[in-house]
Design goal:
Blueprint lengths: L3 H4 L24 E5 L2 E9 L1 H8 L8 E4 L5 H9 L3 E4 L2 H9 L10 H11 L7 E7 L7 H14 E12 L7 E10 L2 E10 L7 H7 L5 E6 L4 E7 L1
Parallel strand pairs: 3-4, 3-5, 5-6
Antiparallel strand pairs: 1-2, 2-8, 6-10, 7-8, 9-10
């Protein structure tokens, strides 16, 4: 059974997308600035080697279960389901905030809260998920929570399945931008900065290889936003 937070976001490959229409893409490479009550949003479109690699082995198949851990967007729902896959989305950071409080990593070592968080966000049978769009959410997890999440991902993602994760390349930042990612096509992302947030920890290539040591392989791409795009093969 899926956790309640996830059920409403499932779409079968033949079902119609939610009402409201897909978000309209902007021009490639053009920076967009829009004022918001919570601050200024900065957005751009760019090519993504990580996204291209993620879709390379699944674009010619159908009926896969893909998990999106970012903010649910109409554009991502439509894109994935139009490829013939099932999408399950969990707003990972919102669940994190609801469980532990905004920017609070102190209690992330509490076993009971860790288990509650995993049940809310990653409650799947072993090997049921074919691919995961992790985006940039793992940077906000303290060590005990991060270990538990990576172990759960290793369990629920089928062998040879793929995950795409982003990490900031500068490991000395006190606060990092956090983003909403919208898929434009198989190789292009619309990246919108929603603000800045204090990371629980930052990583270099070696520490990421260690973090995903139980997986078959880890591959890195560096973007102009100083983000490491990481492809993890289960």
């Amino acid at each position: 059974m899926l956790p309640d937070k996830l059920k409403s976001l499932w779409r079968s490959p033949r079902s119609a997308p939610p009402p409201g229409g897909a978000d309209k893409p902007g021009s490639l490479g053009r920076a967009l600035f829009a004022g918001k009550s919570a601050g200024e949003t900065i957005a751009l479109e760019r090519s993504s080697r990580g996204l291209e690699e993620f879709f390379r082995d699944i674009r010619d198949t159908s009926g896969l279960t893909i998990l999106d851990l970012g903010v649910a967007t109409q554009q991502n729902v439509s894109f994935i389901t139009n490829l013939g896959h099932r999408l399950c989305a969990a707003d990972f950071l919102q669940i994190l905030n609801d469980t532990f409080g905004l920017d609070d990593t102190v209690d992330q070592a509490n076993p009971g809260q860790i288990e509650y968080f995993l049940k809310q966000s990653l409650d799947f049978p072993e090997g049921q998920v074919d691919a995961v769009l992790i985006w940039d959410v793992l940077e906000y997890l303290a060590p005990a929570m991060l270990t538990a999440v990576v172990e759960r991902l290793h369990r629920i993602v089928r062998p040879k399945g793929y995950m795409l994760a982003f990490f900031h390349a500068d490991d000395k930042l006190e606060a990092v931008p956090f983003y909403t990612f919208r898929i434009q096509n198989l190789t292009t992302l619309h990246v919108a900065q929603q603000g800045r947030r204090r990371p629980a920890q930052l990583f270099n290539n070696r520490s990421l290889e260690k973090l995903f040591g139980k997986f078959e392989s880890v591959k890195f791409f560096l973007t102009r936003e100083r983000l490491r795009e990481v492809i993890i093969k289960a």
